Every structure is written in structure tokens, then in C-alpha cells.
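Obj: model holo form, ligand = NAP.
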Amino acid sequence: MILVTGATGKVGRHVVARLREAGHRVRALSRDPARADLPPDVEVVAGSPGDADASAAALAGVDAAFVCLVGDVEAGARPFAEAIRRAGGVRRLVLLSSSAVLHPVRHRIGDEHRAAEELIGAAAPDATLLRPGPFHTNSLWWAKSIREQGRVRCLVGNNPGAPVDPDDLAAVAVAALTSGEHARRRYELTGPEVLTSAEQVRVISDVLGRDLDFEVAAPEEVVATFASITGDRPAAETNVAALHSPRVPWGRTNGTVERLLGRKPRTFRDWAAEHAHLFR
Ligand SMILES: NC(=O)c1ccc[n+]([C@@H]2O[C@H](COP(=O)([O-])OP(=O)(O)OC[C@H]3O[C@@H](n4cnc5c(N)ncnc54)[C@H](OP(=O)(O)O)[C@@H]3O)[C@@H](O)[C@H]2O)c1
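Output (holo C-alpha cells):
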């Protein structure tokens, strides 16, 4: 039995699908099992990684766990680490972290993921850490304004990135959940090409066969927007400074996904073509 947290999310849903395809039994942790919409053979347990009691119960008897934390990931990691201890440990664990931990500019997202790696790593010393950069799916932030106005007002700046497909992350996660070879490894994971936000919008425009306007929101506006959502202006300031820094660590490709999977990672164009209906 393999536990998948975040099983209804962008990476977790692919992890579930790939584990089932490979014949594994899957238990999923979801805040709302009635709405999880997972296949009937998946055992869905109510809760989230931030709930130590639910997580300890969900970890009982599993061989491996995929851990995806959202929101304040440090706050979620603490109870999950406690749950691992209460469950007497877990043989294999894969934590979906972030390449933000490698950013030379200190910022809240990086700090939280670093703390989560330490907390989970202390409870599960053989954990495999996945450190991806931006996901292909981040472009869905633009889907509504593309559909309705043919434009993108970009809140994350226009730095180069090497966006990665959530399904490739899931494939790496499944490799690490089902084999001992990846114990204690830390994998920085990128897509196959470097694209700025403007270049991603051009790819979507090509795929749709429709011109799209692109503009970048000023950092001060983005700070105000993020702070209004989270109520934490200092965190918003550090996060926006990191996003706009020319030293972002996700602005380069590496061959890790290809080395681990034996095939090239999927391109942003392939992902956009497959999801074109969401932008129409
Ligand atoms: N997006 C990126 O570019 C990127 C890059 C690097 C790393 N990451 C990291 O990848 C992880 C996954 O991020 P994501 O945004 O893609 O997650 P996600 O797939 O949108 O969410 C995963 C699951 O978390 C649960 N969830 C959603 N909101 C929640 C909340 N407020 N409180 C508790 N649970 C909640 C939901 O499951 P249920 O409703 O079923 O409980 C959801 O399916 C995060 O740690 C993120 O920092 C993301």
C-alpha cells in the first residue's frame, strides 16, 4: 500500500494514476473524500498532512508515502513529521519540495520548503527530496484572461525558467516510491527548455492560433496583491524580490528527469497543446 497526499492535486493525481497502472494499491489523503473524484479502488482517507492524527492513521501499514504540502508548507510539515514518528516510521518517502530552496535570495517560500525538508528528513532519514522549478500548469493562472480578453497580465515577472510537467514529476516520484535506489537523494528537476513568461504565452498563442497581449505587473503591485491574499506583507516582499531576481535557480535546464526516466521530459508546447481547451 502506498499513501499519496495531495492526491487530488496537479502532481498527486498523476502519482495515483501511475501507481495504479503499475499495479500498486493506493491510499489517498484528502480533506474532502466525497469530492476527491479518485478511482473506486483508491482508499480515500479524510484529512490533510497538517493533521497529525489523520496522517498517522493514514500512514499505518503503508510501504511508502508521497508527501505534498501546500500553503504554509513548514506548518504542514511539522504535524506530518510527528505522524511519521507515531506511525513508527515509513520505509520510503518522497517529498515534493521546490528548487526555491536553492535560491540565493532568501525568501519565505524557500525558507518554508527548507524547513519542511529538515522536519520531514529528520522523521524519515531515507526520504527522497524532489526540487522542481515552475510547473507547466502555472500557466493556468492566465487561462481566464486569455479566454475572456486575449491577454495576460503576468504577476511572476518575465524571468527565464525551465517549466516542468507535473506528470514527469509524478513519474520520478513513482520511481522513488517503488525502488530503494533513490533513498536520501535530492533531485533538482527541470523541463527540457528555458522559456520566459512571454515565450510561454507565445507558445499558447501559437497553439490557439490567436494573438495574445502580454504585460508584466510591476513588483509593487504584485506585493500588494500577494499581501492582500495572505495578509503577510514582509513575506510577499521577499517572495516577489526572489521571483524578480535575475539569479532564479530555475532558469536553467538539467538532465535529471531524462537520466531518471530514460526519456526526455515533456515540453511546454506538448503540455499546452494537450490542454488547449482550457485556454479557449
Ligand atoms: N507550482 C509550482 O510551480 C511549484 C514549483 C515548485 C514546487 N511547488 C510545490 O509543489 C507543491 C504542490 O503545489 P500545488 O500548488 O501544485 O498544489 P496542488 O496540486 O494545487 O494541491 C495539492 C492538494 O492540496 C490540497 N489543498 C489545496 N489547498 C489546500 C489548503 N489551503 N490547505 C490544505 N490542503 C490544501 C488539495 O487536496 P484535497 O482538497 O484533496 O485535500 C490539493 O489537491 C507545493 O508544496 C508547492 O510549493 C510548486
